[in-house]
Design a protein that fits this description.
Layout lengths: L1 E6 L6 H15 L3 E6 L14 E4 L11 H19 L3 E5 L1 H11 L6 E4 L4 H4 L4 H10 L2 E4 L2 H4 L4 H5 L1 E3 L6 H4 L15 E6 L8 H11 L6 E6 L5 H14 L5 E5 L4 H6 L3 E4 L8 H8 L4 E4 L5 H5 L7 E3 L4 H13 L1 H11 L3 H4 L1 H16 L1
Parallel strand pairs: 1-2, 1-4, 2-3, 4-5, 5-6, 6-7, 8-9, 8-11, 9-10, 11-12, 12-13
Length: about 375
């Protein structure tokens, strides 16, 4: 079949990573894939060469137009793109792309499957009319967690399914080597990966580490990710400076080889205030790292981690709880090894081929 995927861009975010992996798997399965984006980001995920990409957003000459004119142009250009491509189905990812797709496909007869990728309270509650339209136009929805699904109307839930994110084979096929006793290197690295934004709450991680730093003098915190909000990045730098641990809490920027970084870390921490299905946590678990994560809305970490079995869950926003969990992993190598082995079992559920097949089965059920 011909599948058109609509997403804002292919910049380095979680949904974008999923689209890059799924589109390649769909191609391997013999489907035709077109990706329609609104803009091109400076640093984007690579696509399978057989995937077509089209621009469906604003042009340079549109930037000085009014806000309303821009909104109308985005809808009409996406509609024109879809009608020109005549796909068998449109898949859209993230709230604004979902709203845009619902409006653009109304009356076309082309089925739309949307995907909710983040906390609905943040992404959908403020947009009641757009959410209502999406629920009534879409043929179905792919959720990442049960908690996210329960936010929407019963009819919308009934036409939906839950599918985990795929993880690239560079994580799932890499030999499992973790042993806490061997993970020191230049010092035990506590790793965190994500965009430098308030949502990821790296300030919480800094405050938690400050509480235990004297007890684990060989440990350090490495934070990888690109700055997306300058004000928050400055706040984070001030927090690190104020902790007196500038030599042990390091902002590493983007990495082109996160798998290798994970391979040499001692543990992984996700300190977010809210999440959909955090890819960074999935990748760390697939690599067999002991993981500590906040049990935050909308349930992504709790979907992945069985507490005290395949990782540790702590209350969001609680530095003392996060510090205690981190210390438990740092002070007990055999416990870290047990969490590691259990975490790595997630590989079986997130293989790209398996996840793509689940998507195709759901699409088939919606387009007949």
């Amino acid at each position: 079949m011909k599948i058109l995927i609509h997403i804002n861009s292919l910049g380095r975010g979680g949904a974008e990573r999923v689209v890059s992996i799924l589109s390649g798997e769909f191609i391997k399965m013999g489907h035709q894939v077109v990706i329609a984006t609104e803009w091109t980001s400076e640093d984007e995920y690579a696509l399978d060469p057989s995937v077509s990409r089209v621009h469906a957003g604003l042009l340079a000459e549109d930037e000085n137009k009014s806000r309303i004119s821009k909104i109308v142009l985005r809808y009409t250009r996406l509609r024109k793109c879809v009608l020109a491509e005549r796909p068998d189905v449109v898949l859209s990812f993230c709230n604004k792309a979902n709203f845009r797709s619902a409006a653009a496909l109304a009356g076309t007869g082309i089925p739309l499957i949307v995907s909710v990728r983040n906390d609905p309270v943040t992404d959908y509650a403020p947009y009641r009319i757009s959410t209502w339209l999406m629920e009534h136009i879409a043929a179905g929805c792919v959720f990442q967690t049960k908690q996210a699904k329960e936010f929407f109307s019963k009819a919308f839930q009934d036409g939906s399914c839950i599918i985990l994110n795929p993880v690239s084979v560079q994580y799932t096929d890499r030999p499992f080597r973790y042993r806490a006793e061997n993970a020191a290197g230049e010092g035990r690295s506590i790793l965190s990966v994500g965009r430098i934004t308030p949502q990821k709450n790296f300030v919480l991680l800094v405050r938690a580490f400050r509480l235990i730093a004297d007890k684990v003098p060989d440990a350090r915190v490495l934070i990888y990710g690109d700055v997306q909000e300058e004000d928050y990045a400055e706040q984070l730098k001030r927090e690190i400076s104020g902790s007196g641990l500038e030599d042990r809490i390091l902002l590493m920027g983007l990495s082109e080889d996160v798998a290798s970084v994970l391979e040499h870390a001692y543990m992984f921490v996700l300190s977010s205030d809210y999440e959909g299905m955090p890819n960074a946590l999935l990748e760390a678990m697939a690599m067999g790292l002991p993981c500590v994560a906040t049990d935050c809305p909308c349930g992504g970490p709790a979907t992945l981690i069985t507490n005290d079995v395949s990782g540790l869950l702590v209350s969001a926003g609680d530095p003392e709880a996060l510090a205690e969990a981190m210390l438990q992993v740092l002070e007990h190598p055999e416990y870290a090894n047990r969490l590691s082995g259990n975490a790595a079992q997630i590989r079986q559920q997130v293989q790209p081929e398996k996840v793509a097949s689940e998507w195709i089965r759901f699409i088939d059920s919606k387009i007949g």
